[in-house]
Amino acid sequence: MTNSTVDLSVVIVTWNAKKYIGACLSSIQEQSTCTSMETIVVDNHSSDGTPDMVRKDYPGVILIENDSNLGFARANNVGIRISRGKCLFLINPDVIVLPHCLERLAAHINREPSIGLAGPRMLAPNGSVQRSTMRFPTPWNSICRALALDRIFKGSKTFGGFLMSDFQHDRIVDVDILNGWFWAARREAVDRVGLLDETLFMYGDDLDWSYRFHECGYRVVFCADAEAIHYGGGTTAKAPTFFYIERQRANIQFWRKYYSPFQVGLYLGSILLNEVIRVVGYCVVFVFNKGSRNDASAKIRRSVALLAWFVGLRSNRTGLA
Questions:
Q1: What's the CA gap between 44 and 63, in Å, rounded?
Q2: What's the CATH class of domain 6-132+169-230?
Q3: 13, containing H or E segment
């Protein structure tokens, strides 16, 4: 590979995402041709034929095939290390990039040297605007989540602060956290901030990377003038309980990395409270709503599995490290 730079590098990590990756790559190919761009697919040892499809149908794509599932952070780092773009895009495979999305995000980054990380507005397949930003977690907003106060007082910054339920995703604004489904990053900022934390397998990278960009003095910006469609759940649907626990493992790791032991204790308490409430609530749904029993049963099992994992961690504290 030549050492010359290109304007944009797109890195996509896949794992059994054949159902989605074709539409994603086609949408990227349809972007503006005014700038030079490379697309890198890093496949985490898929068994559904994803690499063969990419190799056959998209010969211009740089394909990296890992010998095992390295997880989200490590696989993205593989792509970042070989990329040459002055602006980096990390995009999930279940995303369709809408016209002008890449160029508008790149324009924001190129125009404002203070911006290190930027992200577009997320649309569901039906066109509705979805949440793609968060505020940094605190003991208070974690307890509000556990007690469902962010749902009861939807739109309140006081009770819904973590998930930004008060924000309509209708303007360009600096935020604490951009969710990791779609990132645009300045190369120079990444060189300073560092790669994704490879101790995180699947989740928590959005909390951690956004936090580190802020620590290094860069702005993290939500850009409502750029849009992409996100199907969501393309990977996690294959093993919902595993990924549910993995998300909580990553959250605990983030808290232990950046917060005091007292704050971590409060967060751990909020986990226990949240899952107990969920089990009780879905048991009520199971008893009184026959039409929702299958869904309620699955969520009860998922929360019980997390509680069992959590109790195991508390009895063996080394597992929280």
A1: 11
A2: alpha beta
A3: strand 6-14
Task: Indicate the angle between helix axes 205-215 and 240-258, nearest 10 degrees.
Answer: 20
Share in percent of the chain as helix, strand, coil (round to 5): 45, 20, 35
Crossing angle of helices 50-57/18-29, nearest 10°? 30
Local confidence band at 24 (pLDDT 50, 70, 90 cut-offs): very high
SS3 assignment, position 114: coil
* Each residue's pLDDT tens digit, 56-68: 999 999 999 999 9
Q: How many Cα atoms within 13 Å fall on the side-chain side of residue 94?
A: 17
Tell me: pLDDT of 28 over 90.
Answer: yes
CA atoms within a 13 Å half-sphere pointing along the CA-CB vector of 250: 23
Contact 220, 214 (CB under 8 A): yes
Parse the chain into domains and list their residue ranges: 6-132+169-230, 239-320
